[in-house]
Amino acid sequence: GGRRTQHCLLRPTKIGGMIYLAIIAKGDVVIYEVKLPGPSSAKNPAENQLQFIVHQALDSLDQKTWSGTNMFLREVDRFNNMPVSAFITAGHIKFMLLHQSGIDENSVKQFFYELYQLYIKVSMNPFYLKNTPITSRKFGDRVFQCARSHFLR
Length: 153
Known about the structure:
Elements: E1 19-25, E2 29-36, H1 50-66, E3 72-79, E4 82-88, E5 94-98, H2 105-124, H3 137-151
Antiparallel strand pairs: 1-2, 1-5, 3-4, 4-5
Helix pairs in contact: 2-3
């Protein structure tokens, strides 16, 4: 499926791990993206490929969403032996995670549940406009803390 062509430029990040997180709102708009600390791998995709990989996985996610009721989907797509996992909130916000295949499924699931709690807090903030980029530094710091606790044990 090549129906998704919309993308925005990746912000440069200083972290060296290879876990890429994108939070995607209605209309497939990326409202948050970040490279997170994780086990290093020789087969990391190029920085400019990350968002395209996740957008490609959205097509698979759309198909799998209609065929089940799970919020957590272990693997909706693959790139160079790296799975893309997904979590869909009740409000149809999609959390997409590109990561190494060696990461434990439970760690990914727990990370998504904690991320969901963080997202709920942001979305309840009266100053946050729904479906707009999340720019809160506090949110970013907490996402990094969650990633460290689940992916760098």
